[in-house]
Every structure is written in C-alpha cells, then in structure tokens.
Task: inverse folding
C-alpha cells in the first residue's frame, strides 16, 4: 500500500510538472505576441505603425526618421505641450498593405478628437471672458490655453480612412507625410486651427 501511494505521488508530481511546463510555454507565447509590433520587420506597415506610435508618444525624432515632407514638428516647449494635449486620444488601426517594387501603400483608420472644434470652443471661452470682464490680450491667450484640456475632452471624435504612400529608400520604408496625413491625425486641417492673436 505504501509503495502504491508513493507511486501515485510520483505520477501526480510528473503530471503537475508537465502542466506547469505547458502553462509556461503558453504564457511565453502570449508575452511574445503582446510585445512589440505584430507587423513584419522592415515592412511598410511597420513603418506606419512606428510613425503613429512616435506621434502618440511625442517622439518626433523617430517620426521624422520614418517620414518625409509635410508640416514641421514642434520645437518649443510650448508647442510640445500643446501637441501632448492634441494627441492624447490619437488611435490608429492598420487595415491593408500593398507593395509594388520600391513603392507601397498602407491603409489605416485614424481616430482622434476633432482638434479644431476644441480650439474653437476654447477660443470662445477666452473671448467671452474678455468681452465680459475686459481681460487683456495676454490673459485671453492664457485662458485659451488653460481651457484646451477641457474642450479637447468634450470634443467629438472623428475617424478618417487614410491611405499612406511610402517609398523604399535604402533599407527602410519612408512615409510621404502629406497635409492629408496631418489633417487625419488632428481630426481636421491643422493649419485651420484658430489661435488667439498676439498682443501688438
């Protein structure tokens, strides 16, 4: 009877070890699938994913490495802080990729708050305060910036189906960073954003 119990214990131990090894293997696969990009390394889709990831994390050096043309990236601390607010809700979903020699297109669904709407509402708040209380131009501009976090949160979302063009330059794919791309990122035309006038 004692030998039988020992044998059962050994078999049970071996079974648990196998289950533990299998569980460890599955967890490893899950961690590998969740870490990093799911796109083929060096592919156009990976370049597009890098670009949007860089924009969302305000890594403009990386964004510039994988794209060319279009609007310049922010340089001053004030501009960078503004971009942090504007890109807080940026999301993207890559749908399709087509490669033709050294050219490629990547279809992506881009979603963000409608930033011009938020700017217009923040400007309305600031101008209304100026009209009612006679605050200075400097105070109006300050109130405009201070109102943006709230008006961005309250703004509607806009989803844009975008097709990005890329060229293979050397060993990497480069995105054509057109105005259309930046428009989608900001939920509209970034050049149309209303800004408070500087005090003369």
Result:
């Amino acid at each position: 009877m004692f030998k039988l119990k020992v044998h059962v214990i050994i078999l049970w131990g071996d079974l648990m070890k196998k289950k533990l090894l299998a569980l460890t293997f599955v967890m490893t696969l899950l961690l590998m699938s969740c870490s990093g990009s799911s796109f083929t390394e060096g592919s156009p889709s990976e370049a597009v994913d890098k670009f949007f990831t860089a924009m969302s994390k305000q890594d403009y050096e990386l964004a510039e490495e994988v794209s060319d043309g279009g609007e310049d990236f922010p340089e001053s601390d004030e501009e960078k802080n503004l971009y942090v607010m504007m890109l807080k809700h940026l999301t993207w979903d890559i749908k399709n990729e087509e490669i033709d020699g050294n050219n490629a297109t990547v279809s992506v669904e881009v979603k963000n708050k409608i930033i011009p709407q938020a700017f217009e509402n923040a400007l309305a708040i600031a101008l209304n305060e100026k009209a009612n209380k006679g605050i200075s131009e400097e105070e109006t501009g300050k109130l405009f910036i201070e109102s943006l976090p709230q008006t961005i949160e309250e703004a509607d979302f806009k989803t844009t189906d975008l097709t990005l063009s890329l060229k293979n330059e050397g060993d990497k794919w480069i995105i054509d960073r057109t105005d259309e791309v930046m428009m989608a990122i900001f939920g509209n035309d970034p050049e149309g954003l209303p800004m408070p006038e500087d005090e003369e």
Observations:
- The two ends are 99 Å apart (CA to CA).
